[in-house]
Specification:
By secondary structure, the protein is mostly beta strands. Helices cover 12% and strands 42% of the residues.
Amino acid sequence: MITDLLREKLSAYIATLINHTNAEGDVGLGGNSTSPAATSLDVPLTVTTSQYEATRSDDNVIEVKLSIEGSNITGKVIREASFGGNDGSTDEMLARVNFAGVGPFAANEILEIFLVVEVE
C-alpha cells in the first residue's frame, strides 16, 4: 500500500510529464488489444491535436483531453488513442486505449477524447 501523499505526488508528476511542452496525444485506426510493451499506436495517424492537456481532478486522478480537428481525420474511423509524455529529452507513449470505432468524421467536426488515469 502506498500513502495518500505518495499518490498525490505521483499524480502531480504524471500530470507534469503529460503536459510537457513537447508532449502530444495521437489517434489511430487500429483497434486490437493493448500491449504494455507498445511504444506507438497500432495504426497511428500522427495528427496534431488542437487541444492536449492533463488536469488533476482529484489528488490521485488525472484527466487527459485530446481534441482533434475533423479536417485532420476526414472520412476516418478512429479506434485507438494515446497520450504521451516527455522527460525533457524524449517523447514517449505513456498509455494507449483501444475502443469501438467512432466516425467517420466531416471536416467541420471536432473529436474530443477524455482519458482518465488514477493512481492507486
